[in-house]
Amino acid sequence: MKMNYIHKITAGIVLSLALTSCFKDENSAGYEYMPDMYRSPAIEAYVDYGEIRGWQQDTALMNKQSSLLPPMGTIPFVGEDTKYNLPYHRLPSENMVKSHSISSLEFSNEDYGLSAEDPNPMKLTQTNHDKGEVLYNRYCTSCHGEKGQGDGKVANNESINPPASAFTIPDGRKFYSITYGRGVMGAHASQLNQKERWQVISYINAMNGAPIVADEVETVEEAKPSLAEGLASLMNTTSNSDSHGEHGTEEGHGEAQSLALEGLVFATGSANLDEEKSAATLETLLEFMKSNHKTLILEGHTDNTGNAGANLKLSGDRAAAVKTYLTHNGIDAKRIESIGFGSTKPAATNDTEEGRAQNRRTEVKIK
Ligand code: HEC
Fold this sequence. Notes:
Cytochrome Bc1 Complex, Chain D, domain 2, 41% helix, 2 domains, mainly alpha, binds heme C, CATH 3.30.1330.60, 4 strands
């Protein structure tokens, strides 16, 4: 009798355990006592930000790649410097792996020879020369000597004088040897990043008589920031004004800063947005909207040719077309306002074709 009772209890427990495990979501990690322990609080490129339980449930972001733009001034994502961010494609030689404790599972005994063909991505400008000079004097003079004659103090003391001809080899090969070392010279990959290694090479080449070219290419590019950079700095200006917490002053102190969207193509006289030709601008805008929770204001403007009423409608429709693109791609319509001003707010003169072209524009502001 008693045994029977125990059997029943045991069967009951087994059954309830079986049932609970059947209904359990097998993808669930179970109850989260300390979410931080398996969901990193740090910004990570491929975490699904739509799904962080207890903190965020954002269906617009859910199951989408969350790789965001890096904070301003950290990793160069656009512009000149990006070409130095890819990993170096040449492997160390077997000897270097052994003798210089380079922790690489792979090695190549051909890459040193092949590196001679690698192009130098850097122009020998004054800026690069000057940066290279500082680095050369810090890391190389001790052996190679101030003028590259191989008579540095350390080299003299240890009788390991590098030949002056060390600096006449092709740039790609210099880069290889600076990265992985050569003979008694150690690897410098951890002291100098790729850009700095090329800057040192610039300086060495100038020492050997290579001409220095003007800096203008880089300054032109810096003068015109990309759309992504422009949007990021709009963000900064908005958050600054927020942090003062003086709401009343916003209207009084002029308008929020705006940015003209370049590269939007509409059919002439209509609000038909050519999504293919405008792709670069639209995608950058979309990425931007996915990377934050701010509200975007799209303002359409025209030049003063034609009927003022029609212009007003056209500018509003064009701004709305950009909004439609964003909402079709998952951005909440509540986060976008669109408005048309027609020709009432010209950015330049309407007397020249150039000025009129500047006046036909769509601007963005961030709230
Ligand atoms: C500890 C002394 C020492 C330091 C520091 C040093 N080098 Fe060297 N370097 C040498 C010696 C010795 C050689 C010749 C190696 C050989 O061919 O065996 C050499 C060779 C080279 C070569 C020719 C490599 C080749 O493939 O033939 C280059 C280029 C070079 N060094 C650049 C640099 C630069 C740039 C720096 C500073 C970032 C630097 N070295 C720092 C000692 C040094």
